[in-house]
Structure formats: C-alpha cells, structure tokens
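TICKET: design request
STATUS: open
ATTACHED STRUCTURE:
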C-alpha cells in the first residue's frame, strides 16, 4: 500500500470507527451509527432593546426609543439527527413578550423643548429558528466534543400603549390612556453561528450536555432566549437511538434546562 493511501485509510478509520460488523451487514452498521433526538421545552427570558434616529449627517441624535424590562416566554421544539460523527440539529420557537416599558425621547433642537414620554409594553411577539450542521471531533462512550456552523433568525414585535410626558414638552400632554396603542415596532435579527457542543455521561442513563458559540449578528441588541451558551441534563434511553424530551429553562444570554428522555 502506498503512503498516501495508507494515510487516507487511517483518517477514514478514525472518522468512522468499526463496531464489530462485517461488510456483509451494512444495514446493522448504519442503524447503529444513526441517532435521533426530538423534544419540547419552555423558555423564559428578559432583556432590552433600543433604536436611535440621527439627523441626515449622522452626528446628532433626533429621537431614541428605549424598551426595558421585556419579559418573554416561548415554547420551543428542538431536535438532532446524527450519522456516525456528523450531526444536524435545530430548533423552532414561538412566544410572546408579556411585559415591559418604553421611553421615547426627542432631543433639542429638533424638538423643543426636550421630550421624554413613558409607555407600557405588552402583547408583543417573539419567533425564532436555528439550524446547525456539525461533526464530533471526539466521540467515546463517556464524552464527546464537536464543532458546528449554523444560522439563526429571530423576529420580534413590541407594542407600546399609552403615553405620559415626563419632561416639560407639549407632547402627550395631557396623557394618552394605556388602552390606546401608541407605537408598534418590528425587528428581525439574522446571525451566523460558529461554535462547539459537548456531552459528558453521568452514569448509565444520564448525561450533561451543552454548547457555546460566537454570533455574527446583523443587529446587536435583542431580548432573545437563544443564548451564546447552554447546558442540558438529560436521561438517556439504553438504545440511545430515539429520544423524546420535555424541559424548562430560564435564560437571558445563556440557559440551563432539565429534560427527561425516553426511547
């Protein structure tokens, strides 16, 4: 065997280790190498977002909308498909932004005198989806470590009700009641993901898993339940081929969830 072919054979053997099957039993070998995981979980998050409008020259602020205390909840479906060391995973979530507040500022000399109004935020929307493609660089019976690339999309709608002047401007003076919608704002965030995920066995039926990634976002602020780090404690069925999970997590820029899985 030539040296290049020998090196290629060693690389293939490391990437797709044998499980004791012969070439006459390919179906059993593929079945053993395949895994699938599906589940549901609930997220709670809190955050803030802001938008500033500048003049034509881009040097002077004309107006600023600042949303704070945005408490959101979402129901998320997630899953992962694996074949040998390659995996495809993702999630889809839908929820609402229940609470929050808006401060709307208009600056001099564009608005005179300076105006600062407060409004209540509720009945907002939150939708998102993520997909990742990766490969486990290290895979053993007790631990595995992999890298992935992926894409995330998040859509957010915030609604402000009522308007009360907090400075001395004529705007919202007298106040507008909270039964009246004053402002609605929609934002979309799209990000590319590059990161690592891992899993460590905790005995025969439990495992601790998580991920960490860097985000390249088109916009930098969002009250999002999709954190840049997460961890999960799972119960694993003996076959480890199909798993169903339910769980709960509390998150702002990270997460911790507990799931019960069965085959």
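STATUS: resolved
RESOLUTION: sequence designed for all positions
ATTACHED SEQUENCE:
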């Amino acid at each position: 065997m030539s040296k290049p072919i020998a090196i290629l054979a060693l690389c293939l053997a490391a990437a797709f280790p044998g499980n004791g099957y012969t070439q006459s039993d390919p179906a059993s070998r593929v079945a053993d190498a395949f895994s699938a995981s599906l589940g549901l979980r609930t997220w709670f998050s809190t955050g803030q977002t802001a938008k500033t409008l500048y003049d034509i020259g881009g040097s002077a602020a004309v107006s600023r909308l600042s949303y704070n205390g945005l408490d959101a909840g979402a129901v998320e479906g997630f899953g992962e498909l694996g074949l040998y060391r390659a995996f495809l995973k993702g999630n889809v979530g839908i929820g609402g932004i229940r609470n929050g507040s808006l401060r709307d500022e208009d600056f001099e000399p564009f608005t005179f005198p300076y105006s600062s109004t407060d409004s209540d935020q509720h009945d907002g929307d939150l939708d998102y989806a993520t997909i990742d493609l990766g490969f486990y660089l290290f895979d053993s019976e007790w631990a595995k470590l992999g890298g992935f690339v992926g894409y995330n999309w998040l859509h957010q709608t915030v609604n402000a009700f009522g308007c009360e002047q907090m400075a001395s401007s004529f705007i919202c003076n007298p106040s507008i009641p909270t039964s009246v919608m004053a402002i609605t704002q929609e934002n979309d965030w799209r990000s590319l993901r590059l990161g690592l995920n891992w899993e460590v066995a905790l005995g025969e039926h439990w495992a601790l898993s998580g991920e960490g990634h860097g985000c390249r976002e088109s916009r930098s602020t969002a009250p999002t339940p999709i954190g840049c780090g997460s961890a999960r404690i799972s119960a694993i069925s003996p076959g480890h081929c199909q798993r169903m999970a339910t769980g709960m997590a509390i998150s702002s820029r990270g997460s911790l969830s507990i799931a019960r899985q069965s085959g």
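CLOSING REMARK: The radius of gyration is 25 Å. The chain has two helices and eleven strands.
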